Amino acid sequence: MAEPKTKYDRQLRIWGEQGQEALEKASICLLNCGPTGSETLKNLVLGGIGSITVIDGSKVELGDLGNNFMVDESSIGQSKAKCVCASLQELNDAVKAKFIEEYPEALIETNPSFFSQFTLVIATQLVEDSMIKLDRICREANVMLIFARSYGLTGFVRISLKEHAVIESKPDHFLDDLRLNNPWPELRGFAETIDLNVSDPVVHKHTPYVVILVKMAEQWTKSHDGKLPSTREEKKEFKDLLKSKMIAMDEDNYKEAIEASFKVFAPRGISSNLQQIIDDSRADVDSSSSNFWVMVASLKEFIANEGGGEAPLEGSIPDMTSSTEHYVNLQKIYQAKAEADFLVIEQRVRNILKKIGRDPDSISKANIKSFSKNARKLTVCRYRLLEEEFNSPIQPELQKYLTDEDYSVAVGFYILLRAVDRFAANYNSFPGQFDGGMDEDISRLKTTAVSLLSDLGCNGSTLTEDLINEMCRFGAAELHAVAAFIGGIASQEVIKLITKQFVPMSGTFIFNGIDHKSQLLSL
Amino acid sequence: MADSTAHVSRSRDLDKLLLRPGHLVGPTFEPGPELRDDLRKFATVLVVGAGGLGCELLKDLALSGFKNLEVIDMDRIEVSNLNRQFLFRLQDVGKPKAEVAAKRVMERVSGVNIVPHFCRIEDKDIEFYNHFNIIALGLDSIEARSYINAVACSFLEYDSDDKPLEETIKPMVDGGTEGFKGHARVIIPGVTPCFECTIWLFPPQVKFPLCTLAETPRTAAHCIEYAHLIKWDEVHSGKAFDPDDPEHMKWVYSEAVKRAELFGIPGVTYSLTQGVVKNIIPAIASTNAIISAACALETLKIVSGCSKTLSNYLTYNGAEGLHTKVTEFVKDMDCLICGPGVLIELDTSVTLQKFMDQLQEHPKLLLSKASVKHREKNLYIQAPPVLEELTRSNLNLPLFDLMGKIRKDIVHVTGSTTKNDKKTSCLRKLRVVFKGIDGATDMDTAGGA
After folding, report:
1. Contact B326 A484 (CB under 8 A)
2. Mutation site, A45, A69, A327, interface B, largest B CB count within 10 A
3. Does residue B152 share a domain with residue B223?
4. First CA to last CA distance, chain B
5. What is the DSSP letter of A54?
6. Which candidate among A138, A462, B106, B196 keeps its CA 20 to 30 Å from the CA of B55?
7. Is 90 exceeded by the pLDDT of residue B448?
8. Residue of B61, B63, B114 to mutate, testing the A interface (most A Cβ within 10 Å of its Cβ)
9. Which residues of chain A make contact with B324, given a CB cutoff of 8 A?
């Protein structure tokens, strides 16, 4: 038996043991197991999700064999949920897989409390009416929900939940937390012990750029009324000053200092994104507040008091040209400051918990530590109820999409994906679902789309004939490659939501399989 | 008409796209049952790589109307593949990927035929690659992409106006992933940029300077690379380090730990040691699924014309929200690979050996250990020894004679070249023109050199 660690090695390098543990605890419900649903779950089962429950009321037909890899000849006539569930189980025996042979629409109508047992529900290929009902049910039960649909060469993915707070957002490009524009006493003290004018060339070229910049910034402020360089001329002058300190052309540390000098010029204090989070009304906590908001409340206090306008220090430094000794010492100074900041945050968290009548130890040290380390990168995602979006989309955004060439196909598909559901409600089939009567379907879909646009307050906006024609040609086909794409995205968002790492998508992702100019629409 | 049977047919969903006329389609699109049947009968697709992308590609193509697939991969299945290479099971570990992948897809999708090739891509004769309508690349190395790209571009011929000849174009779709990020692209040699035209998209990997490793280590990775690149050779004189030997890896790890302790550097773990030494790229099922699906969809569209195609490069990032972007890169008109070919002017007396010496010194080629092929005929082959011996006598014959005394023609040469201080195998297309033959050569030199 292979160690699970080895099996999951390539993903543990992304979301770590903690992320993996969260996945293994999660319980997922899939509604409809056509190719879109099957492919979504396939990716999750491979990654070791805790349990899956597949819900589908249909029997496998010959047509399903042409687009779904999880069924084969022997499945024909049998429950699709059962067959797909068995195929998925084959991929990973660590996953608990079960199925219920029932139509999701019926379950939504008759047994809404059924959904509250799950961590997350993935609803595929549902029509608007069922989506809206399920959305309300899951929102009320505080169950995360993802909609996914493939339709010809288009489709969409949409997350729905009240609020998702991310501590480990792991952004790709984020300015490192060196405080070169606002060094604390220990860092300044360390810099003072190092002489930039040392004559030994080997020592000179192994002075880390952090020290160079702290010292040179200090020297600058002394001669500039305590101010750091801010105008373009001053910045250039500062860089020239750095250059003048070089004693050889090959001093990488000075080159790094010049390149990183913008870190000295950067404004002090917190980002507008973080400001928004600490200003959120949810940061006024009471006994019903989540751990996240309790920690935000402590962060708010920290910034106003000990932090002096700054968030707690992250504590890590990037690699840089340096002697081993200087680098290791510098690392220790940053770590010590981060640890000190964390201890203050922790104390404040415990006090707040006590104040709101909760057990002061109800948030673990590890959680607070991670929060403190990632404080600058906190992200809060919120999603409108589907019904709200459908009834009153954000007008300026909608108008922008309708007139912006880059968005015209995506917003066209967005409207048409809704229009086909209205069409189906009126005519009992999707436009072009069956051969024959194509011309009539095209004109009916056009009328439906125009009336939908008018309901949305976009009188006069039209969709191109080409797009309407294509939508009818698609005839509600679920193509395997499109389903694999949509399912891939849905599964990736599930992973981000469950591990609480990385930032999930916002708005509605509209897939454009014609030229791949897909878009996210925030409506 | 297929009307009455469409809803019970296996191709129920795909038929909507292949049988119905459309408005936003390719210029060659001719909808109808013939198109669907031709796709099944005549279209052949080669999938290069049976790993994370390759497994997905085989499944996606098998369910996108293609019935004739081949797959080539030199690797065997490892335990760490199982979190994403969904065609493999624990009991398959150690078996050839191409063979297991082909078998699994054929078991599930009836009527599909997949021929596996368990070998290196360089082991196949160039002509092997010519009988496919399209090549789908699911690779994780720049070198392998370069090689296949050069092979596909080598079939490309230009007319006298330097326009690519339609029937010689071998389209490719290429995918790549790393963690939550990936790309999918369409390469139509002669029309859209080839892999080499935009090679700058893949910057060479940065290596640590040896003096940092030896004198001023600062990070855990520095300690690991010291043990791997310096200490190993010091201690095991002559014995090559094998990254797949766990004993070797454990030795490097323990040496790295010692060095880290000596310098007070934190963070050396066994997992990091493996990651640094083997340059492990994190990989997950979802990104592979997304990128492969985009590639398979483009394959279907290119072959059938049933919709427009990606023009020509899709980047995908799912780590911070969700970002997709399409960029239309342009061809490098002077590209050595997809251009009309490097022009070599020769006297009719030049022997094959002299010609090969020239290739080695040619500043754009620097091509050593050459094997030379003209049309279907091998003029000289380096290996295996039997063939080398058979073709050795050609070395002293004039190339002009070997090529059938024609004034100008295309010659394909495989060998090795140096790129970023690294030897890589390569394939180059050369336009050989002989001087002093009737119908002077002046006009042919335009754009050459």
Report:
1. no
2. A69
3. no
4. 57
5. E
6. B196
7. no
8. B63
9. 516, 518
Neighboring chain A residues of B208 at a CB cutoff of 8 Å: none
DSSP result, B46-105: EEE--SHHHHHHHHHHHTTT--EEEEE---B--GGGTTT-TT--GGGTTSBHHHHHHHHH
Residue B371 belongs to domain spanning: 342-445
> Could you tell me if residue B336 is inside a domain?
no
Residue of A nearest to B311 (CA): A515
Which chain A residues contact residue B24 at CB under 8 A?
466-467, 470, 514
The DSSP bridge partners found for residue B175 are: B138, B184
**Selection from A497, A495, A416 nearest residue A453 by Cα:** A416
Distance from CA of A321 to the nearest CA of B (A): 9
Strands B113-117 vs B68-72: parallel, antiparallel or unpaired: parallel
Residue B332, domain member (yes or no): no
The CATH number assigned to the domain holding B368 equals 3.10.290.20
List alpha helices for A269-404, DSSP H. 272-279, 291-304, 324-355, 365-373, 386-391, 395-403
Low-confidence ranges of chain A (pLDDT < 50): 1-2
Partner residue facing A152 (CB), from B16, B286, B310: B16
Q: Kindly report, residue by residue over A395-437, the tens digit of the pLDDT.
A: 999 999 999 999 999 999 999 999 999 999 999 999 999 988 8
Q: In chain B, pLDDT over 70 holds for what percent of residues? A: 95
The CA distance from A118 to A138, in Å, is: 10
Pick from A446, A443, A514, A497: which is nearest to A155 by CA?
Answer: A514
Q: Among all residues of chain B, which has the CA nearest to that of A475? A: B16
Locate A132 and state its tokens.
Answer: 């809206």
Question: Counting one residue from A and one from B, how many pairs have CB atoms under 8 Å apart?
Answer: 256
Q: CB–CB of B22 and A469 under 8 A?
A: yes
Say if the Cβ atoms of A14 and B292 lie within 8 Å: no
The count of structural domains within chain B is: 3
Q: Mean pLDDT across the stretch B314-334?
A: 93
pLDDT single digits (tens) B53-111: 999 999 999 999 999 999 999 999 999 999 999 999 999 999 999 999 999 999 999 99
Domain co-membership, B428 together with B351: yes
Q: Which of A435, A442, A512 is the best mutation test for B, with the most CBs of B within 10 A?
A: A435
B101 phi-psi bin (left φ>0, alpha ψ -120 to 50, beta other): alpha
CATH superfamily of A4-169+479-521: NAD(P)-binding Rossmann-like Domain (3.40.50.720)
Cβ A68 vs Cβ A84: under 8 Å: yes
The single residue of B119, B197, B211, B335 carrying the catalytic annotation is B211
d(CA B73, CA B182): 21
Contact criterion met (CB < 8 Å) for A481 and B290: no
Q: Name the helix (H) or strand (E) containing B409.
A: strand B408-419
- Is residue B211 annotated as part of the catalytic site, yes or no? yes
> Does B189 lie in the same domain as B251?
no
Q: A384-397: per-residue pLDDT in tens?
A: 999 999 999 999 99
